[in-house]
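MODEL INPUT / OUTPUT PAIR
PAIR INDEX: 1
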Amino acid sequence: MKKIPIGISSCLLGQNVRYDGGHRLDAYITGTLSEYFEFHAFCPEMGIGLGAPRPTLRLVKIDNAVHCVGIKDPDWNVTEPLLNYAKQQNRLHADLCGYILKKSSPSCGMERVKVYTNNQPHADGTGIYAAEMMRLNPLLPVEEEGRLGSPELRENFIQRVYVLYRWKALLAEGLTASSLTKFHARHKLIIMSHDDYRDLGRLLSELSKAELTQIAEQYILQLMNTLKKPATRKNHVNVLQHIQGYLKKALSVDDKAELCEIIEYYRNGYVPLIVPLTLLKHHFRKSPDPYIEESYYMSPYPQELQLINRL
């Protein structure tokens, strides 16, 4: 499979672009994720010509607007250059299926970046470049390298990357009402693990009355926003039980009891998600079902990433 294009803060790949002339090489990113992702590095501060090392910057609120200025020289304001750099790079960003940002950076931080008001910090900001990049690319899955240490957030980000990758492949093949409906059907169980899928289903019910492109744009925006909320254990249990229903005529009494027990173990946190899923796959190998076989819930991304081993 072709590697998926992902934007990333250059320092996370080991490039010496930070303010102190160093880097923040991330072993998980450059090791595990590089097997599946093709990284496209961006450093906005280097991109606007600041060099490395360089004077440090911070976010400051001035007249109800957030600016990126020098710590030692507050008159040194690089807000507009950072915004312009995000706009200039947007033609490259448009080809990406995800983006990993450097946490806490006044240019690249995704959230909880310190913003100073009267020299008092409040961790409620977003880096100037990051905010503009995300505004221009509302579909793009974005995460910080620090948050990828959480199994739930890591799985959520990578799942969204693969969903967007499949969506772009669908558009490249040529969007039709039939292909859009099939895309939704194959992702329905994933959606169920995050939220109620019926709103998206109702949107597709308007396909015969509205412009396909318009419905598709609304659909993918709503889908990606829905998937931003990590799936919950409760919702996964509902999906697992829903899938179990497709085996009601195939399972023996003992097999059904075992499957119910394993799902209950998962509900109570005794086993990870991979355990009931593996058992379900075992039963569907013996009693295939075309809908379940097509569902991305059963295999949303390469198993080698081991994302559901800790969920």
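PAIR INDEX: 2
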Amino acid sequence: MNAGPSGRAMVSRGTDRFCGTDGRPATHLPVFDGSLPIMTEQPMVIEDSYTGHVSPGSAPQRRTVPGATITKMSVGPMDNNVYLVVCSTTGKSVLIDAANEADRVNQLIGEHAPSLELIVTTHQHGDHWLALEDVAAATRVDTAAHPLDADALPVRPDRLLEDGDTVTVGDVTLDVIHLAGHTPGSVALALTEAGGGRTHLFTGDSLFPGGVGKTADAGKFASLLSDVETKLFDRYGDDTVVYPGHGDDTTLGAERPHLGEWRERGW
């Protein structure tokens, strides 16, 4: 090691300038040629033993249901859930909430859903769309959201979703359900299994294990609870699976006995 003109240390390249402990050239040492090693991206591993419990940095989990697969991945510091629904017969898919960690979301899509057709944002809160702009640019597919939340998103939706609309990818159809309260334009998506089996509800921040999502005042709470009761609990059976925007899954059957408690406590 020599001192450069400014007195800073300089490393000379070539094995003849690297010496071992005995002062002789250590010709067995590698020569640095100025290039960096090529880093190859490791394939994303998906667990097929679905439990519904994922955490940031953990492997995504995939559930197979009649007609579709549902992949759940947690991203970001707020443990946001990203969902990928893929039609089993056509491979076409929809992504629900490009919430964070665009690189991971894009890798999930590239390796496991190359025929992505739509990105749906469940509501306007930033933790649910931090990766939306990057993912939409990388995939070049349309985005969708409810009109009452559309203006707050970084990407203007190509499609505006209203209550009663449907989202179709391949042979899979998801029903759009407007749930006002957590935000003005929050939506849930309902996938009913092929052949009329059980329903899978992607509820954003409108319904969780233990209660509805946070609301700003009593009026918004009353609106959200009313929508959740009439549009979800009154419409779907107890075996309906609820996939929330954060945390673990639940079922309508597990939550139904507690509706009165939620109403009394006001949240």
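PAIR 2 NOTE: The two ends are 67 Å apart (CA to CA).
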